[in-house]
Write a structure and sequence with these properties.
This protein has 13 helices and 10 strands. By secondary structure, the chain is of the alpha/beta class. Strands 5-4-6-3-7-8-9-10 form an 8-stranded mixed beta sheet, sandwiched between helices. A two-stranded parallel sheet has the order 1-2. The radius of gyration is 21 Å and the shape is elongated. It binds guanosine-5'-diphosphate and magnesium ion. The site of magnesium ion has 5 residues, from helix 7.
Length: about 325
Amino acid sequence: MARDWNDVFILDREPGAAGGAPVAAEPVARERRRGLLRRLRENLSKTRQALQAEVQATLFDTLDDETWERLEEALIMADVGARTTAEVVERLEREATSGQVEGGEALQARLVELLAEQAAAGDGRIDLRHAPTVVMVAGVNGTGKTTTIGKLAWHLTREQGLRVVLGAADTFRAAAVEQLEEWGRRAGCEVVTGPAGGDPGSVAFEAVRLGREEGADVVIVDTAGRLHTQDDLMAELAKVRRVISKQLDGAPHETLLTVDATTGQNGLRQAQLFSEATPISGIVLTKLDGTAKGGIALAIARELAIPVKLIGVGEQLDDLRPFDPDDYAQALLAP
Ligand SMILES: Nc1nc2c(ncn2[C@@H]2O[C@H](COP(=O)(O)OP(=O)(O)O)[C@@H](O)[C@H]2O)c(=O)[nH]1
Ligand SMILES: [Mg+2]
């Protein structure tokens, strides 16, 4: 079953009860799911095309050593990651050789299943039952932090009927603050800003304070994606975290890391660095549209054991989607 926004957010009320989207009736939900899957296939079409051709040329032909090598190569080219690829292909080969799975179609379906298993890592939901829930968003410059925050804020306010406060703690770049303010206007939420070059910790602190004072449901804090050195950046992230937790015990409740899917294995290495410096609870894989390296979701889930929670599939407001491992694997490979 495809994950919808109502499956991602854990709320202490019925989903949509406060003016948000009503829970759709069964046939409507099915139709909607088909529409979403169709769109996801389009979004992933570059990766899909590359993989489909190889699957047709290998699994539907005589099975020999070359079959598995070619399949491995295709998955690695799509940035599925060497380790993940090796595991999946070995397993498929074993099942094919033992006669457990027979025929091109069955092998293809099994490959989809195996990839879906690998793409799932931990709980993909976002718990919004804190008062307020503080979400910190980190990631390298240009990976889509601010855009993701804008889209997320829009879903939370317009669809879920929640009150959201944004904190522009990327004070390193002046344009970053204006950009967040613009998203805030679209989503209809307040944006806490500080002076350019000012202390990001103060902005984060003030955003959480205001969120508490005004009884907001969610506070989302944007952060800088680049400082003079990598060490500076990691130290600053740790500091912003500390400041947030001083204002509200247990916060931030969610730390999302944006990873640009077009950067493939490089994105995986970035994610590794960030997760060593600060606890990351979920990945937002951005720019999945327009890349042939869409397999990176698998490598991240498998090799970092951090769930991919959301995916970015474009620059528009509704181009942020919940990540569903089954849908994702189907969109990549199912006929
Ligand atoms: N195609 C596409 N572009 C995206 C996506 N997410 C962000 N972008 C674009 O990537 C650029 C950098 O995004 P931004 O949010 O400013 O990144 P930040 O520096 O991490 O805050 C902008 O031009 C965004 O419109 C996505 O999912 N798909
Ligand atoms: Mg930004």
